[in-house]
């Protein structure tokens, strides 16, 4: 009989505060990359080519990593408050971040330089690049969606009609013709027409949606609300599947290649994998020491990452290749991490 396979993750240290957001870039000529956000208390500049364990600073700064190996590339510094969201453009050449210091920032992802700071009047909770990378959208406690033209950084943003609640998540879909948002204090997902600036559809949920993701092929919207994970048709907006989870879930992500499985994480500290078609649990990964705030599949579908209250990021293989006996021989709590190693992308810059 085959020995049961279990997952042994790559464990990425560096954040000293809870990891609240993860974002994978698409596959680029240099590979793919992972950026993370952490809700610390202080943030100032960028440090590159300095091993994390030898550089002493407070947290609350996005970190850039090689998406396949988890190797640390750099730490973006410049904010002065918790960073709630971070993302990369399609070429992984620029990064953006949304912060409690009432600003969103645009970064050069190769050098770590701040390209521009977009000032707001309240906490900025979410940000996202458009598919064509020409626009950046932000949202937060002001309940206003702002669209910034990245070719005219000093130009005032276009403001979309006021959101009914404080904005928690946002993303683009339909080739940048539609914006998807969820709120921290009310249920539902709202779809906004970019041209009119109006809500054209609301996907109803009982609880506030804490995670919303558009699948890589553009077919599905994956949401997490309360103890439920839902899949919606991204074109006709009908509910395709809804599954009850074992606990309150903060984040869910659909495998991007076959779309046959999804992962979810939440308050019980475990990262679970489920069959997309049946909702059956097919895997359970244990290792975090605090609630799981975010999970995301890599663009290849071969691995997925989880971020937790414990300040770590764990990168799990979608198909585990270690048996129970093999794992038992390893020292308990053994961590694979290569902090401080500079990736080729940076050293070539």
UniProtKB/TrEMBL annotation:
Positions annotated as WD repeat: 76-117, 285-326
For this protein, the record's Pfam families field holds: WD40
Superkingdom assignment? Eukaryota
Q: Give yes or no: UniProt keyword Isomerase.
A: no
SUPFAM superfamilies per UniProt: WD40 repeat-like
Which keywords describe this protein according to UniProt? Repeat, WD repeat
Q: What PANTHER family does its record include? A: EUKARYOTIC TRANSLATION INITIATION FACTOR 3 SUBUNIT I, EXPRESSED PROTEIN
Would you identify the family this protein belongs to, as annotated? Belongs to the WD repeat STRAP family.
What this protein is called in its record is Serine-threonine kinase receptor-associated protein
């Amino acid at each position: 009989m085959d020995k049961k396979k279990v997952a042994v993750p790559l464990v990425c240290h560096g954040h000293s505060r809870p990891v609240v957001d993860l974002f994978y870039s698409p596959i680029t000529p240099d590979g793919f990359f992972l950026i993370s956000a952490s809700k610390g208390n202080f943030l100032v500049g960028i440090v590159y080519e300095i091993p994390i364990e030898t550089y002493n600073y407070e947290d609350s700064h996005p970190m850039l990593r090689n998406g396949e190996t988890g190797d640390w590339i750099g730490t973006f510094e410049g904010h002065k408050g918790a960073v709630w969201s971070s993302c990369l453009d399609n070429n992984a050449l620029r990064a953006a971040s949304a912060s409690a210091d009432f600003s969103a920032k645009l970064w050069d992802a190769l050098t770590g330089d701040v390209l521009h700071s977009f000032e707001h009047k309240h906490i900025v909770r979410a940000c996202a690049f458009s598919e064509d990378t020409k626009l950046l959208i932000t949202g937060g406690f002001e309940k206003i969606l702002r669209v910034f033209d990245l070719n005219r950084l000093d130009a005032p943003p276009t403001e979309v009609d006021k959101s009914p609640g404080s904005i928690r998540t946002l993303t683009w879909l339909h080739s940048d013709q539609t914006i998807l948002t969820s709120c921290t204090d009310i249920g539902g997902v709202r779809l906004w027409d970019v041209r009119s600036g109006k809500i054209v559809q609301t996907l109803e949920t009982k609880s506030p949606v804490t995670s919303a993701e558009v699948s890589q092929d553009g077919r599905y919207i994956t949401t997490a609300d309360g103890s439920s994970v839902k899949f919606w048709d991204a074109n006709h907006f009908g509910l395709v599947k809804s599954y009850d989870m074992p606990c309150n879930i903060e984040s869910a992500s659909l495998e991007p290649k076959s779309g046959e499985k999804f992962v979810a994480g939440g308050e019980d500290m475990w990262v679970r994998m489920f069959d997309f078609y049946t909702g059956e649990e097919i895997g359970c990964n244990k290792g975090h020491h605090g609630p799981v705030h975010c999970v995301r599949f890599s663009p290849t579908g071969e691995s997925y990452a989880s971020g937790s209250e414990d300040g770590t990021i764990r990168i799990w293989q979608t198909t585990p290749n270690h048996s129970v006996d093999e794992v038992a021989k390893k020292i308990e709590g053994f961590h694979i991490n290569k902090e401080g190693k500079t990736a080729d992308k940076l050293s070539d810059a």
